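Problem statement: downstream parser choked on a complex file, so we are re-checking the raw output for the iron/sulfur cluster run. The parser issue turned out to be on our end (a line-ending mismatch), but while we're here, posting the original submission so the record is complete.
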Amino acid sequence: MNLYHVCKRELWLHANGIRFEHTSDLVYEGKLIHEESYPQRSEKYEEVEIDGIKVDFYEAKNRVIHEIKKSNKVEKAHEWQLKYYIYVFEQNGIDGVTGLLEYPTLRKTQKVLLSNIEREIIREMEIDIKRIIDNDKCPPVVKKTICKSCSYFEFCYVEDNLI
Ligand code: SF4
């Protein structure tokens, strides 16, 4: 869901097993922020894995999903990712869940809720995501500012890219 909003090409590459994240400094930094900002978190919160999503910090008592981002700006993709988590929880019978986006580097938090209209939008997004990842052809490169920090940058911008 996050990649659907960030870049359709990245979504396709990731879903079709072409991954370079393990070499990405950004992923490493992200993990470091998790560990350094919230060293006590693993004891206080639960890790939940359902229907293909993995929530690192679920506060079961208050039904809050905490999502921590290293980004230095609040992005729509982050909100939709968290709304999707809430949606998946609901689909599995866990109602009344809310989300909290946390930006340690910005010292900012943002509450995230899911409306009826957004539930419908998510259902439409799921159909579109399936259409994209099932397609034999990888979506073309669309130049964006985030490309430079993307783990696929070299792959996308080499001259004779085969995909
Ligand atoms: S480098 Fe740019 S076009 Fe290529 S996958 Fe990343 S964000 Fe998408």
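For whoever reads this later: Residues 7, 9-10, 141-142, 144, 146-147, 150, 152-153, 156 surround iron/sulfur cluster (CB under 6 Å).
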